[in-house]
Each structure stands twice: as structure tokens, then as C-alpha cells.
Amino acid sequence: MIDDTIAAISTPLGEGGIGIVRISGPDAINIVKAIFKPVKDRDLDNENFKIIYGHIYNNNNNSDTVNREIIDEVLVSVMRAPNTYTKEDIIEINCHGGSLPVREILELVLSKGARLAEPGEFSKRAFLNGRLDMAQAEAIIDIIRSTTGDALKLAVGQLKGGLSRKIDFIQNELLEITAFIEANIDFPEDEIEEYNLTTIKTKVKKVKEEIKNLLDTADTGRIYRNGLKTVITGKPNVGKSSLLNVLLKEKRAIVTDIPGTTRDVIEEILNLGGVPVKIIDTAGIRDTDDMIEKIGVEKSKSAIEEAEMILMVFDSNEEYDYEDEKIVKMVEKKCGIKVLNKIDLKNNRKNINYKIKEVLPNWPLIEISAIKEKGIEKLEKKIVDMVTGGKSITSDTAIISNIRHKNQLKKALIHLEDVLVAVDKGMPLDIIAIDIRGAWEAVGEINGTAVTENIIDKIFAEFCIGK
């Protein structure tokens, strides 16, 4: 039972058009009544889902109006339980933006008996009071941190319960298997028949398939959540910085004809067809005696090791040589695209193209001119297609985007593998039931039906204060 009242500033500190102090709990309305006076005669006890205009006073209980100091002119939103975000009484005081008004109002609220909310405590109460399950609560963070429209769609879909419905289905299937097993355990005089064992295997395999299908979305989900770490690499002067600039649609990197101009790693975020991409321009990789350039080369190598996608840039005017070969060996185990740049220049590219097609044979080859901006749309589309598989993203798409969810599904999969082994070996039903239960609990940590208090605290600690 949650019996205290919490409060926090729910808007970023600093100058702005509006600032909000949020209050939730059984004493929310009484606390605000002690510091707020409506311009018109309105009783907050009789209001619900209304916005009331008035003033916040530093001593609203003092009948002497001369001694009452106005803190700010505000709009007070009254929302009564249970139809609120936390399923508790909620008051939001909308005051003028700026650090001083919101801080003074928050201090007044705290002086009247509210407690300063912990990070994510409003959402935590929404979960504990049954307003949201754990997967939906975590979607709130993803909505706040979304950097593209598609990433936002996925987060909104999870908040609407898209992932939760998948998890609920898996849990219900596991419960059905458990009930089937326990019915046989309860009646030991009836030997379990072979077809019943077959039924268990069939049902377990069905659940395994559902879990695998979700796990197959994890890489795509992680990219939409965190961004696709994409490294532009190649030997010096092949046009890496020009490519970065044209992708960003701004002159972010210095471009010259002098090899080795880029000395450091440059990282930017861009939106490619709804896919958030962390694009990284690296120093050209070559042997050099220049100490500063050498440091840049080492940073480039580290960036390649950490990259999720490589854009390997070649110069269409130059023959494939040992410098290209050295970089190819660094990236050959990665996923990437071969980018043949400077196609606007006149040259005989027949032999060059043939050699480049031979290396990294599983990588697509895109021909571009970064300077003339030719082939850029084709390159961008290829990057997006490699992430999405050519499928469009909607708010109904159920995707695993959280590493915690991925790990829990993997745990459930291990338990189900053990079930199949146990069935094949003719193990006792009570042993099989343990792993079925383990799978149910592993999946239950995603939606919160089997989550521990420590995990709850850890998850909501990642939220900002006031959410």
C-alpha cells in the first residue's frame, strides 16, 4: 500500500514557456489547496479533470491578504484516481518556465508534506498500481529518447501493449503446459501415455518458435533504440569526409586533396529513412610516420572493431592496392557496403570494378559521387534495407529493443531446451514442470509478473526525476 505523496519538477530546468510541478498521492489535493487560490470561487475537492486558473501563495492559510505573497500566476490541473497515470490523485501546477518559479513552488509543496520523488517514481507507481506492466513502463524511456519517427512508432507500440500481448501469449501457453503436466502428476495411478508426451513436446516447440521469432527482432530493435554504429573507412583521400558531409547535408568534416587531412574520429547522428544511424568518419588507414596521424589511424582501427556496419570506400580512379587489402582484412568479418566513389571523374574503371567485386563478395557494391551527390539515395536505401529487411515499421510492430528483454527470452529458451531433453530421456514429470516454470518466470520478468523488487528499483532508477 502506497500511502505517501510525492512531488517533482516534470519539465527541464532552465528558461521556457512553461514549467510543471507534478504531485501524486492521497494528499495531493489538500497540499495544493494550502498554497493555491483560484481567481474564481472554485473548490478543488469538487473538481476532476479540470484546469483552474489562479495564484500560488507562500502562505495561503493566512487570512491576512496583505501578508500573503504571490509566487506565480498558474494553471492547476486536477486529476482524480483511479483514472490517472499513477492511478492516484494527481495535481500538476503549470507555472511560468524558469528555474526560480518551479523551484519555489516545489519547495512550498514539499513544506506542506509531500516527499521529493525518486527517479522514475511516478512511472513506478503506475506499474505497482497496475496502470502499466513492466514492458510498457520501459517503453516510456524509449519514447523520451527516440531520435527518429520509426523509433518513436516502435516505442509507442510497446507502450500500447504490442510486446506485452506477445509475452502474455507465451506465458499463457506455458501455463497451459504446466496445467497439463500437473493434472497427470495429481493422478499418478494413470500412467502418462506416449501421446501425452508428444503433446508436451509439440506445445513446447510452438512456444520456442514464438520466442525465437521475437529474438530475431532484437538486433533491429537495438538499432532503433541505440542507433546503428556505422563507420566510414578506407585509405586516405578516397572521399570518406565528402561522403560524411553529403550524408549529413552539411560541411561537418574538412575536405582537401591532401591525404591524411582527417586526423581524428568524427561522429554524428542522422536519420536515414527512420533508422537512427551513428555515422563515424575515420582517419584514412595507412602506414605513416606522422605521430598525430598515427594516433588517428589507431582510433580508426578501434572504431572498426566496435562498428555494426562498415561503409568501405574505394576510389574509382585508383587501382586496388595493398592499402585497400589491409583494410579489407580488418573488416571482412563485419557487415557492410562497398562504396565506389568519384564515379563522376573520367577513367577506365572496368578493371577496378572487377577487382572490387571480388573482395568482400557478400557485401553489396554501390557506386557514388559524393561531390556530385550521385548514388547517395541508393546508398541510404541500402543501409535502411539491411536494417529493416525491406519491411516498414508501424506502431503495431512487436520488436525486442531492450537487452534485458533479450536476455530473459534467452533464459526461457534454455529452460525449454531442457524440457525437450527431459521428455526424450523419459524424466519424471515433476522435473519437467520445474523447467516449464523456469521459462514462465524468465518471460514474466519482461512484463513484471515475475519480477523482483531489486529489478524494479534498478529499471525505474534509469528514468528521469518527474517521470
UniProtKB/TrEMBL annotation:
Cofactor: K(+)
Keywords for the protein's UniProt record, in alphabetical order: Cytoplasm, GTP-binding, Hydrolase, Magnesium, Metal-binding, Nucleotide-binding, Potassium, tRNA processing
Binding site for GTP: 237-242, 256-262, 281-284
GO process terms (BP): tRNA methylation; tRNA wobble uridine modification
Annotated residues for binding of (6S)-5-formyl-5,6,7,8-tetrahydrofolate: R22, E92, R131, K467
PROSITE patterns with a match to the protein in the record: G_TRME
Species per Swiss-Prot/TrEMBL record: Desulfotruncus arcticus DSM 17038
Domain of life: Bacteria
Protein name per UniProt: tRNA modification GTPase MnmE
Pfam families: MMR_HSR1, MnmE_helical, TrmE_N
Name of the gene: mnmE
Binding site for K(+): N237, T256, I258, T261
Protein family (similarity comment): Belongs to the TRAFAC class TrmE-Era-EngA-EngB-Septin-like GTPase superfamily. TrmE GTPase family.
PANTHER family (UniProt xref): TRNA MODIFICATION GTPASE GTPBP3 (PTHR42714), TRNA MODIFICATION GTPASE GTPBP3, MITOCHONDRIAL (PTHR42714:SF2)
Primary location group: cytoplasm
Statement: the UniProt record of this protein carries the keyword Iron: no
Coiled-coil region: none
Enzyme Commission number(s) of this protein: 3.6.-.-
Subcellular location as annotated: Cytoplasm
Domain TrmE-type G positions: 227-388
CDD domains: trmE, TrmE_N
